[in-house]
Amino acid sequence: MKRLATPLHPGHPAVARAGLAGLAAWLALLAAFPAQADAVRMPSRPLPRYAQECAACHMAYPPGLLPAASWQRILRGLDQHYGTDASLDPAAVQQIDVWLQANAGTSRRVAAESADGPPQDRITRSAWFERKHRRVAAEVWQRASVKSRANCQACHGGAERGDFEDDAVRIPK
């Protein structure tokens, strides 16, 4: 007796089509997942004190860009914060430290750094930053509209929100 391929039978064309469609949907989901898992977003509840104190001089960087140990060292050295005295009162430092530790980077990009974090605890010296910006010509960093490698907002309009998507980069003239 000849066996019929019913919709419940694995050999039926409808099952094969559904399997391919399901596989395609699964692959699309997997392709999107690493980008989301490695994304660095500003926490949904940013600490106002962090934004107030840090953004007074530079962008309030999303805490996920550095590991917890780097943030601790930065806060301990505010009196010599990359050549500037950025000292804060102990209560402010404590409040910011607790928030930074809770939101510090744990993603693959941060974990790829040494246990001590990037050199000099600089985001711009991290391995992932170097890799992502390897094609940016040296002269771009010198433009008046860019000023330095630390001025993320010059090219990344959503930098304060932690949006560093490649498709949204606009390098100014």
Instruction: Tell me the number of structural domains.
Output: 2
Strand content: under 5%
The number of helical segments is: 7
Radius of gyration, taken over Cα atoms and rounded to an integer in Å: 23 Å
**Major beta sheet, specifics?**
none
Helicity level: 40-55%
Shape: globular
How many strand elements? 0
**Could you say which structural class the secondary elements and strand pairing correspond to?**
mainly alpha
Q: What is the string of helix and strand elements?
A: HHHHHHH
What does the average pLDDT come to?
Answer: 81
Extract low-pLDDT stretches.
26-38
Instruction: Kindly report how far apart the N and C termini lie.
Output: 76 Å
